[in-house]
């Protein structure tokens, strides 16, 4: 096997970017996002700091786009590259509106990314995760990012919640099927506001650490990644100390 | 309001048919299924026994087909008909195979019916359920049929389970949004084999009532329907006494 | 078998009393409560209306008191009486206070009733439920009353929640063990305020049916009781339409 | 504050001992077990390796014994010591037998340790965890060890499961109350067989890492301990890759 690589789908200013930086200290990383603005600076930073990163513009819910992305990864790292980690951090648009005002497209937004997109990503990465198992220091990891809406479906949240519940189901089914094949599948329930530039003004009165640290999430994902296969966690939840649950 | 009607999507030899017969004793019933063979005899039986039933061939995952079906209901019962009950009993194909052998279409089968189909059905019925609330003896009911796979995502069950988890999320979100509007939204986890001709030879050694009675499910749905709005159940599970859980 | 009887532990102005009245229309009922004031009028009413009821002052968390109560039931109905239904509706004191201010006795209040008390009640009733199975029209029923706190453990609710979670565990374990023996064990999550004299002034602004109807709960328990053994529900939740979940 | 200490209740050859060794690299550790044989060698090892450990024979379900233990900790570390971590790893006897054969004492075994014992431990440690918050590098941690039986109550497991469900409720209630006070409360579902001398011959055919590593659990607890208060996990599950769930 020529190389072990980590691929992160859904890179941006929050979790995806922090995870990319964290995993870049151990592996070459591939960053997928629809909009290259979401990874360009990060790719530059990682490469500039002595790591190795490439970004690929990808529509994760489109089979052709996903196929093209993984073809490109193959050209870059050789046909026999393996995956040490695959992180699915993409999310459909967060739509909150009265159910009867949802258009069909708005409703499908959640399931397109968290259902179909996660399926495409899992099918593209699992063969390389399985094949990497005998060569990887840590069990190869497939991590899915969930949210409060993965376990609670609130009023007016039908689009986001149906996608996130479907994603959690996918994660659980894959954990059971691929655990015995040496792949560590896990799911993280991110329950709170993540501290990124866009949320700078939110929750200010609650104090400087009332928002979830993206680097803290990345550390948690790294800790999942380094668990031995005798001792695997399927699911963690993450929230700031002030969260009301 | 001219009339209170019950509509059942996903009618066949099991739950859907039994629910149709049960609710036909109180309301005219509309039976939706893709294949008219699934409702023709039932329609005849109900009408022959002094009830009122119509069947409409419908692809529940297709917006145009669902719209056409509800147009037809309007022509039949008058533009101001209300819905006393809407039962979503449709299910995608039950596909069980290794994840890496699933085609995109096979995976989507679950989400198409249980995600998109349930969305279309809920959007088509909720306005008529809400408007019926002041006129209906019992809180108008929207019931979704789930399965073991609604709460457990087993290996090789990614298609079915993602659909069923999404359906449960939809049901919970709608229960919270439409409860205060007087509509009773509920979800039933059918956890076992239903006793229908196709399963005649299954579980024989476990005895004559080791399979779930479709009429028993219909009774349970009727009991949900007749709860007063002060005392609503969102979720029930149903299994035979021999089920291993 | 001389007689099928129903026994209800935890009788008072709410659920217990309503359940007693409901089941008294089918069976002689035995009402257990520590304080006879909680059942005296009800016993009189039921007997006066042509039913059959006896009340027995019982400390459900005390083995000797429970034994004495069931000895008395035996003297009343004959040594070979069977139980068609046993309803455990007792609850420890609802204590809400900062955890560090809880005395050991206050903390234990929840587990004494919902843990030890439920154990004693289940051990006293299950042999009579099992033996009644072949003779009872409906599968003999053992129903446990839970609360919101059965599935959510809120801050400052350690005593009540630990008891209620333990009770739910007991119910699930017994459902699995005694279902195959023909006994229907179930658990009800009562999620809201019950409409009784003490809560008359509560939630008034939310309207006349913003509180759960005790009679509605009793109907739900009766519906559980009449399920055939092919079609058993382990758990239901019950809340008013205005509940915020 | 003179000193930050870690205290572990329920020390033996598995999780408790591994956690003690792990935390001993950062803090003086206090090891509680009823039988000193369970900590004597470990205390010697840790002290011999340059760490600091004391063992105290304690019956965790007895208020007087717990009080005496914490008095002793105070004498040892000074009246103003703080707790960086408190790990509750005690468990009642694992009793598996038909429900009707359980004695009252056997049933209570689970609730005595996991209910009352956990209450006593939490009340004894929380004031020292809260007071340590401003002085501790990591948010002071209170970790509870659960099991498969914390989320599933199997047949014939009423004693163990009621205790473990109660413990999980306590953990959730405390997480909500003490998170805002800067204490990190968490719960671990250990779902599988732990690799200790007593289980040496178990699961051998499944391979050398088919049992959970106690050191792996200790690493997971340490990872929980080092989470920043912006990014706290309440619950993790842990199982070997071959576990059937």
From TrEMBL, chains A, B, C, D:
Query: Protein name, please?
Result: Short chain dehydrogenase reductase family
- So where does this one cross the membrane? none
Q: Which InterPro entries match?
A: NAD(P)-bd_dom_sf, SDR_fam
Q: Which organism is it from?
A: Diplodia corticola
Q: Point out the coiled-coil segments of this chain.
A: none
């Amino acid at each position: 096997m020529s190389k072990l690589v980590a691929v992160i789908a859904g890179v941006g200013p929050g979790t995806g970017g922090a995870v990319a930086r964290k995993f870049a200290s151990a592996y070459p990383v591939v960053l997928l996002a629809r909009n290259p603005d979401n990874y360009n600076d990060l790719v530059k930073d990682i490469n500039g700091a002595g790591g190795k990163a490439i970004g690929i513009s990808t529509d994760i819910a489109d089979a052709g786009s996903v196929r093209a992305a993984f073809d490109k990864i193959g050209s870059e790292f050789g046909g026999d590259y393996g995956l040490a980690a695959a992180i699915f951090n993409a999310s459909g648009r967060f739509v909150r509106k009265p159910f009867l005002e949802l258009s069909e497209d708005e409703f499908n937004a959640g399931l397109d990314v968290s259902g179909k997109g996660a399926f495409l990503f899992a099918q593209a990465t699992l063969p390389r995760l399985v094949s990497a198992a005998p060569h990887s220091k840590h069990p190869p990891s497939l991590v899915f990012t969930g949210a409060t809406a993965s376990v609670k479906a609130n009023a007016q949240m039908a689009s986001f919640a149906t996608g996130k519940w479907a994603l959690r189901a996918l994660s659980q089914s894959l954990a059971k099927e691929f655990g015995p094949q040496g792949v560590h599948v896990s799911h993280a329930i991110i329950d709170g506001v993540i501290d990124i530039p866009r949320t700078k003004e939110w929750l200010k009165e609650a104090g400087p650490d009332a928002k979830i640290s993206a680097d803290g999430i990345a550390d948690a994902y790294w800790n999942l990644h380094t668990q031995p296969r005798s001792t695997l966690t399927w699911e963690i939840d993450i929230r700031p100390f002030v969260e009301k649950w």
